[in-house]
Here is the input.
Amino acid sequence: MSQPEQDKRIPNDFAEWNLDSAELAYTIISQYVEHTQMSGMVIAMMAHGLGEDKLKAIVQSEYWQSYQSSRHSLNATKTGIEQLTGLINRMRGIDQTEDKKITEQTK
Here is the structure.
């Protein structure tokens, strides 16, 4: 596909997509993911303190089922987050091998 054809497919809203906007998107997404993970840990700690009878009632509730569904959806977004990270790194000029080294160093 030629460049003019590709440009026609890109909505005007994305004309300002650049490294700064990509990093902002990543920051926002990562903060939500981190908050959700911490919320899950707090929920697990609270559930542990409730006892088996009360916990069983909670686990069978519609709210718990929605929470679990949301949690599974969030886990499925890990691939998308990795893709976004790769895009940002390409925009920064970092290749995938450097990206893996940086990721391993931050673990």
In short: The two ends are 40 Å apart (CA to CA).
